[in-house]
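User: Earlier you gave me the apo prediction for this protein. Now I'd like the version with zinc ion bound, so I can compare the two side by side. Same sequence as before, with the ligand SMILES added.
Assistant: Got it. Here's the input I'm using:
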Amino acid sequence: MWSNWWRRRRAQQLVWDRSLQHSLIAQLPTLAALPPSDHQRLAELTAEFLVDKRFFGADGLTLEPRHLITIATLACWPILRLGYDALRGWRELIVYPGDFSSQREVAEPIGDLELVHEYTEALSGESWDRGPLVLGWEAICEDLQHPEDGVSVVIHEIAHKLDARTGQTDGLPLLPRPMSVSDWSQTMSSAFAGFRATVERADPGEQAMLDPYAAESPAEFFAVCSEAYCLRPDLLRGSLPSVYALLDQYYGLVPERATT
Ligand SMILES: [Zn+2]
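And here is the structure of the complex with zinc ion:
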């Protein structure tokens, strides 16, 4: 069971150590390259996140400020322009020390019957629609050691949360005005189909630009591209320029100022 939890506090009572956030920002070149006004905004959003969400440590993990501030900072980075409302509608975060297992079911039709396969999968992150966000701390630390890989399990799961705001997790998040649903769908569908074809051709040169897991579904494609947009915008812009431009309209983090 959950070993502890983080009580909600009134915003004006929340005291937290900004130096933890400063050293985290210094580890992430594209985040560090954003202007000081964005870092101030990030601190405000982080404070709001820490007040709004409840953290639970699982499997004996005792949560400390470094866990909470690291996760809150990474979760609020993608919503610097979207605003905090983009993260409402869910409250709990469950943090495991390492990967955790999740029960899965896959149904296979056999004539008029349906055969249900049940299996257990090891995960480092999982987002439940309107439910908790589940994370493995070890994977978060590994991501932070290699930002050049363009991978972040926290940003990935936050992208799923943003995606789910429409009521469906299908790769189409709730778009801010004046973005158009049809432009989004056309650009993402065509880029997803193209990426899937490269994965099916098993062309390692083309695949190297993005985790092949992005070919699983439009929702995973959006989540993986969101990680790349934040951490390796140069790679995303070079390999999928239309997706880069669309995500830049959505997230608006102008990361081209960053050097990676
Ligand atoms: Zn995913």
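For your comparison, keep in mind: The CA atoms of residues 40 and 73 lie 12 Å apart.
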